[in-house]
Design goal:
Layout (H helix, E strand, L loop, with lengths): L1 H10 L4 H4 L4 H33 L6 H26 L19 H10 L1 H35 L1 H11 L5 E5 L5 E4 L2 H36 L4 H52 L4 H29 L2 H6 L1 H10 L5 E6 L6 H22 L4 E8 L2 E8 L12 H10 L4 E5 L6 E8 L3
Parallel strand pairs: 3-4
Antiparallel strand pairs: 1-2, 4-5, 5-7, 6-7
Length: 439
Amino acid sequence: MATTYGPQTAAHRMPAALRAPLEGRTWREFLYLLLNLPLAAVMFVYAITMTSLGVGLLITFLGVPVLAVALAGARGLGAVERARARVLLRLDVAAPGPVRAGKGRTGPLAWMGAILRNGASWRHLLYCVLHFPWAVFGFCVSLVLWANGWGLLLYPLWQWPIDRYTDQPGLQLYGDAEGNAFYLDTPFEIAMTSAVGLLLVLATPWVIRGLTQVDRLLVAGLLGPSRLATRVSELESDRGTVVDTAAADLRRIERDLHDGAQARLVALAMDLGLAKEKLPEDPDTAARMVDEAHGEVKLALQELRDLARGIHPAILTDRGLGPALSTLATRCTTPVTTTVHLPHRPAPAIEGIAYYTTSELLQNISKHAHATHATIDVWQAAGRIVLQVTDNGRGGATASAGSGLAGLAARLDAVDGLLVVDSPEGGGTAITAELPWRC
C-alpha cells in the first residue's frame, strides 16, 4: 500500500499554488490557449466568408446550398473543437444529434432543409464567429504572462550575456534622450526581478484556468446538444428503465403466483378430490384430508396476502408512508428506529417508490450489513422528499455496475431521483435517496 500511494501523498504535501506551474493540467491548458488563435482564425474566416457568400447569393438559387454547406462545415469544425477540448481540457461534450431530413424524405433538398432548420448547426456557426475575439484575448494574455514570468524568474541566468556582449550592464527599464537610464544590474535588483518573475509564474496557471473556463462554457454551450435534446434523451433512457422495471416486477409476480399460491391451490384441489372419493367408504380419512386441506387454504391465503402486500401494501394506501415504514421496520432482522417528518403526503407513486426503496435497503441490511441497529429518517427539503437509511454494520456497500444498489439508483433516476451511498469499510453505511415530491 505504501508503494502505491506513497508518491501521490508526497506530491500532495506541496501546496497547490506551488504545484500549479509544473502540473500537466497547466501545460495542457496553456497549449489549448496557444492553439486557439490559429484555429479560431481559420474558423472565423470560414464562417464569415461562407455566410456572407450564402446571404449574398440568396437572390439566386445558389444561396441556400452555400449556407447549408457553411453549416455542415461549421459542424465539422465543431467536432474538431470538441476533440481538442476532450484531449487538452479533459472536457467531454457529447456531439449533437445527426441532421435528419424527416421520415420518408431523402435527397439533397431534404438534407439542405434539415440542416438549415437544425439549431445545433447554427450554434456551431455562432461559435466560429464568437470564439475568435476571445481566442485573441486568451492567446495574448496567457502568452505574455507565461513569457514574462519565466523570463524574469530566470533573469539571473541570462543577465550576464547582456553585460558581456553589449554596451548595457543589464535589462533596461528606463531611458531618455538625455542619456539617463535605469538598468537591472545590481545583485539586489536581479534578485527582485527574479522574485517578480516567481510571482508571475505562480499566478499564471490560475489566470490560464480562468481563461480556459470560458472556453469550457463556449464549447459546452454551443457545440453540445441542446438542453431540450439532452432532456429528451434522458426521458427516453428513463422510459426504458421504467419499462424494464415494470417487466421485471411482472415476471416476479408471475413467478410467485406460479411457484407459490398456484402450486398450493393445485395440490389443494387434488387433496379435496381424493377426500371426495374417500368420503363414502372411509369418512374418517376423508375428514382428516379435509382438515389438512383447510390448513393448506390458510397458507394459500397468507401467501396471496403477502403477494398483494408486495404489489402495494394496503397500509401505505390507507395510512401513508410513516405507518407503512414502521410496519416494514418490524419485519427487519435488525432493530430499526423510524422517524418520519412530512407536512403532508407526497404523490402516491412517490410514496410507493420510497416504500420499496426502504424495503430493499432493509433487506440489504438483514443480509449483508451484520449491524446491531439501523435507522430510517424521512423528511422534506426544498420541495423533495429525502429518505436516509443508516446502519452500524461493516460497511463497504457500493453502487457499482451490476449491484442491487446500482439497479435501485437507476430506478430512482427514472423519476428524477438520486441515490447517494456513504459506506466506508468498517464504518457503517448511510444511504440517502432523494425523490421529487410529485412525479
